[in-house]
Amino acid sequence: MDIAIIVGLDIISGIASLLLISAGLAVIFGMMKIINLAHGEFLMLGAYTTVLSVSAGINIWIAMLVISPIVVGLIGVIVERCLIQFLYGRLVDTMLATWGLSLVIVGTTTMIFGNTIVGVASPLGGFKVGQYQSSLYTPFLAVMAVLLMVLIWVVMRFTRAGLIARAVMQNPDMAATLGVNPAKVYMATFGAGAAISGLAGGLLAPVAGIVPTMGAAYIAKAFITVVGGGTSILWGLITASGLFGFINQIAAFLTTPVYGEVILFIAAVVLIRLLPMGISGKFFKGRL
Amino acid sequence: MILEVNDLRSGYGRIPILMGVTLNVTEGEFLGILGHNGMGKTTLMNTLMGHLPTTGGTVRFAGQDITKLKSHQRSRTGLGLVPQGRQIFADLTVYENLRMGMAGQSAEDTEFMDDILSLFPRLQRLLERRGGALSGGEQQLLALARCLCARPKLMLLDEPTEGIQPSILDEIVETLLVLRTRGLSLILVEQNLDFIAALSSRILTIQKGAIAGEMSPQDLQNPEIVSKFVGMTAD
């Protein structure tokens, strides 16, 4: 029974991690059809922001939940204004540009902080399930993932900004005809996606080894989750994270964590082969 | 004069379509533009709205030179477009589509939206339905209502009869005639002679990207005149 609870917690943790690390990418890809290859570096910048803020004496909760998303969101806005806005509608060029950007960010971060692992202590203690020990930070991450999904849903579904964003996503020319400036919406969307990535990076800071190259560890998983989920931002993200997180953790439990990752990627390849438009392209067409 | 278009030139890439269009619209006027497919009618609408770059000439609207303005800026000056094919936001509900009509304004005015909806009783019971689930006629009504929510002074209406059942065409004519009494100006691009005759006080014909002539609605009853200008015949 104890082992079942622990495995259940691992599955929840796996799903929550995928939701958190993929949400920013899903917003940018789903809304703007831009493949941001610097997404992992946005996560890394969020983690570093938390570490630096805590080192400066700022409360870790404020660092993770407020400062990291704001800092990375602002970086996202600058990147959109200086780079991305010139490349809309040019998918390959955008991929190349964001890949170059990721190299610049990794190089600059390495130059400033060195290639050594830094970190922050987990702000929450542990708890025991029978003979097994687990961290309270695991259910906390799950709660944060759920809250993030609810927040995205509420903003997109019930606010004027969310309505305008959905309209621009569907038909930017028609939205412009009605007085909306699509360029501003794209800028805000890219900034919001970056801010979500910064939040995820901040939240992962206490459980991840933080180095300038840490983004590479997340980018592949984030991509298969977003591509597997399809263009529906929320339903695609939730279903793909649920499926891949479950497969990853069960496979890791039955074999080893390394095989768990291998089986996850095989599952993703099979899914995309069977559903080229992703899960939401088949089952949640037109949904948020 | 609410709109003054002088020697307007435009096209797609290096392919010129408009070869120097000159026209004027007075306040409250309903101007019809008649022409065959491929003569530049939709290009003219899209150029006036700012979707296509102007390669020559000028456009003055409500006393302001808007030649270099982008489409969202033109919308905010009071220019509205109901495009060919309607371009409803298919995944938004009817109510959300109407709210998008007010997206260029600082706040949503629900009273004004109710006023617009009173002109379109058919839409009132469809407010929660997805735009993509409406019939072609219902979508056309929604496109009109959405454009009106943006409070246009001049509406550009591009082929509204395309694929629409006759009962809804009558509704559209009635609604537009009510709007004329409220001071709306209109440029109507059409191939349906009865529809354009029922609404327009003056009709320009367009051929090969330029204005070829001017007719009165009564002239459309004369097959010889129609044939001379546009090669069409009244049913």
Task: Indicate the topology.
The complex is a heterodimer of chains A (288) and B (235).
Chain A: H1 2-32, H2 39-55, H3 60-82, H4 91-113, E1 126-129, E2 132-135, H5 137-158, H6 160-170, H7 172-177, H8 182-204, H9 215-229, H10 233-254, H11 257-274, H12 278-283
Chain B: E1 3-12, E2 15-25, E3 30-34, H1 41-49, E4 54-61, E5 64-65, H2 71-77, E6 79-82, H3 94-101, H4 110-118, H5 121-124, H6 136-149, E7 154-158, H7 166-181, E8 185-190, H8 193-199, E9 202-207, E10 210-215, H9 223-230
Helix pairs in contact in B: 3-6
Characteristics:
heterodimer, A: 288 residues, mainly alpha, 2 strands, B: 235 residues, alpha/beta, 6-stranded mixed beta sheet, 4-stranded antiparallel beta sheet, 9 helices, 35% helix, globular
Strand content of chain A: under 5%
**Secondary-structure element series of chain B:** EEEHEEHEHHHHEHEHEEH
Count of DSSP strands of chain B? 10
Task: Write out the strand line-up for the largest beta sheet of chain A, numbering strands in chain order.
Answer: 1-2
Helix-strand pattern of chain A, N to C?
HHHHEEHHHHHHHH
> What is the global morphology of chain B?
globular
Give a brief description:
The complex is a heterodimer of chains A (288) and B (235). Chain A is mainly alpha-helical. Chain A has helices spanning 2-32, 39-55, 60-82, 91-113, 137-158, 160-170, 172-177, 182-204, 215-229, 233-254, 257-274, 278-283; strands spanning 126-129, 132-135.
Question: What does this molecule look like?
Answer:
Chain A is an all-alpha fold and 288 residues long. Chain A has helices at 2-32, 39-55, 60-82, 91-113, 137-158, 160-170, 172-177, 182-204, 215-229, 233-254, 257-274, 278-283; strands at residues 126-129, 132-135. In chain A, α1 (2-32) crosses α9 and α9 crosses α10 (233-254). The model of chain A has no long low-confidence stretch (mean pLDDT 93). Chain B contains nine helices and ten strands. Chain B has a six-stranded mixed beta sheet, sandwiched between helices. Chain B has a four-stranded antiparallel beta sheet with strand order 2-1-4-5, with helices on one face. The longest helix of chain B has 16 residues, at 166-181. The two termini of chain B are 34 Å apart. The A-B interface holds A 160, 163-164, 166-167, 170-171, 173-182, 286 and B 49-51, 70-72, 75-76, 80-81, 83, 87, 89-92, 96, 99-101, 103-105, 108, 130, 132, 146-147, 150.
